[in-house]
Amino acid sequence: DDADGVDEESKQDQLEEVRENPEGEDLTSDHGVKISDTDNSLKAGERGPTIMEDFHFREKMTQFDHESIPERVVHARGTGAHGYFQPYEDPDLGDEYDDLEEVTKAKVLTKPDQKTPVFTRFSTVVGSRGSSDTVRDVRGFATKFYTEEGNWDLVGNNMPPFFIQDAMEFPDLVHAIKPEPDDAIPQASAAHDTFWDFASLKPEITHMIMWVLSGRALPRAYRMMQGFGVHTFRLVNDEGDSVFVKFHWTPKLGTHQLVWDETTKLWGKDSDFNRKGLYDVIEEGYDPEWELGVQLFDEEQAEEFDFDVLDPTKIVPETEVPVRPIGKMVLNETPDNFFAEVEQVAFHPGNVVPGIDFSNDPLLQGRLFSYQDTQLNRFGSANWDEIPINRPVADRHNNQRAGFMRQEINEGKASYKPNSIGDDDPQEVPAEEGGYEHYAEKVDGTKIRNRSDSFEDHFTQARLFWNSMSEPEKDNIVDAAHFELGNVDRMEIRERMVYDLFNNVDHEFATRVAEGIGVDPPESPGDELPDHDREDPSLSMENRT
Ligand code: HEM
Predict the structure, then answer these.
(1) Which ligand 1 atom lies nearest to the CA of residue 121?
(2) C-alpha of residue 172 to centroid of ligand 1, in Å
(3) Phi and psi of 292, rounded to 5°?
(4) Which letter does DSSP use for residue 180 in this model?
(5) What whole-number distance in Å separates Cα of residue 288 and Cα of residue 476?
(6) Is the Cβ atom of 363 under 6 angstroms away from ligand 1?
(7) Which 8-state DSSP code applies to residue 310?
(8) Residue nearest ligand 1's atom 39 by CA
(9) Pocket test for ligand 1, best of 143, 154, 367 (most atoms within 8 A of CB)
(10) Is the CB of residue 342 below 6 angstroms from any atom belonging to ligand 1?
(11) β-strands 116-124, 78-87: how paired?
């Protein structure tokens, strides 16, 4: 694209080329032959068997038989919408930085006159494609920015910590939380033995469990939900200098939850509650908005924290580093075709643009492999990036070729480098002219399969969360623990949750949980725990409404 970058409509214009809205036209086969009868198969005789020759029947039925693609292995249930992202003019970055260009060269974040088209998909994690919206679960919040410098995918959740610290544990987590393998029960709830068995043996999960038991797991509407990039990422400027960043989406309407009784009624009465909510408000013209905020901190600050910024079970408390709003996202257009847009959109945290880079968070590092890999399973082809909803608006030009369902017709003889005979040889672009260059982080180490000692405090931030809750929020968390653990058959799992996890968070909390699930009250952990009563007011939903 030209120097002025993409415009808000550029993705819609691109999609327009593949939208098909024929009106009043003839019915044809997929190959353009006009069809005279689409209700009756071709038969041998008045009441005879159907004949192989019936190409219209075979084509219609084959297409139907192949309509479904595998659902996402996680986050199968979701919905999405188009919109735009626009950076603010002169965002307030506090005393440390004058403007964003000081920390990143990413044009999508720094050009206030530019509206970058986006597509955002919200999702639950555990349930299958047809499950209910209002279950107790984490929500996905994934945004594809079609920037002038290529696609950037910010693939986040509505809670800022995560369950585990290393990508190696992800298949275990998902096997534990999905329906149990023998009876495929429960469909979309965490209230079962395998999940709590895993949790009770995995103390690093404690912080995330506090969020999952809270109202955060029952969002009232997608437009009333925060989003978080979760991992520490890097921003990189023109000079190649880097600061760490945490990304935050903050809804203009405030952060609101449903209460448990509402959610359980909705499972039955309106299992599309969140999906419909998003669709309806956009159709009615009330376009939902979120602010994108950043927490910026450098290596020296990171070393001062009492947790490791590479550990995805930790947040950077807002009391330590404030969130600075830098722009807004507006979702203003519903999809035309759910399958083509919402189902086929394929995110990948490895899609970054110059100025945005990764940290060594071992969960993020593993995700950089997993998403590309899983799209091969879902689409059966490396050409999933050619599907209209996934195509960048920025130009693409390279020597990648062929494969199942290739859409591009690449001309010429040379699809290799170096070559001397191609007229259209794609040229590498130096970093100064916009080529992506990875941040030159110094890395020097001994090969080792390990867990860093700096990842070992599993309870301090869980306690920070508990301490930051209002009394009604605490009551809701205790009630949720009663329901969830009350559905666990094995008593030893309930006991481990109380004694090994919750009692290390807060003795009173553990005692209240124990009372409701037939577990003897725990003894006070006494002096073994670091004694502090820190709070971060931003964690309470009451302060976010
Ligand atoms: C979806 C893997 C952690 C957010 C997925 C999918 C896979 C996956 C395979 C399905 C993608 C598809 O079929 O299109 C992993 C692995 C993780 C991990 C291996 C850890 C090692 C996370 C974390 C977050 C997250 C920490 C939040 C920051 C999402 C979201 C989606 C998703 C939002 C749905 C994207 C959509 O709407 O299509 N993940 N995930 N995941 N993941 Fe992760």
Answers:
(1) 37
(2) 14
(3) -95, 125
(4) P
(5) 28
(6) yes
(7) T
(8) 74
(9) 367
(10) no
(11) antiparallel
Pick the residue whose CA is nearest to atom 23 on ligand 1: 156
Active site residues: 75, 157
Ligand 1 atom with minimal separation from the 230 CA = 28
Residue 467 near residue 505, CB atoms below 8 Å: no
Helical ranges in 305-413 per DSSP H: 338, 362-379
- Quick one: average pLDDT of 186-194? 88
Provide the whole-model pTM.
0.96
Which residue would you say has higher pLDDT here, 246 or 424?
246
- pLDDT for the residue 3: 47
Mean pLDDT across the chain, nearest whole number?
Answer: 96
ipTM of model: 0.94
Count the residues in the chain: 545
**According to the model, what pLDDT value does residue 23 have?**
74
The number of the ligand 1 atom at minimal distance from the alpha carbon of 378 is 13
Helix or strand holding residue 244 (H, E) = strand 242-251
Structure tokens at 478: 């205790």
pLDDT in tens, 268-310: 999 999 999 999 999 999 999 999 999 999 999 999 999 999 9
Give 186 Cα–ligand 1 centroid separation in angstroms. 21
Cα of 236 from ligand 1 centre, angstroms: 24
Q: What is the number of the ligand 1 atom nearest to the C-alpha of 346? A: 14
Per-residue b/e over 249-268, b at no fewer than 16 CB within 10 Å?
bbbebebbbbebeebbebbe
Q: For helices 193-200 and 170-177, give the axis angle rounded to 10 degrees.
A: 140
Ligand 1 centroid distance, CA of 202 (Å) = 20
Residues contacting 359, CB < 8 A, separation 6+: 231, 232, 233, 234, 244, 309, 310
Report pLDDT digits (tens) over 448-504: 999 999 999 999 999 999 999 999 999 999 999 999 999 999 999 999 999 999 999
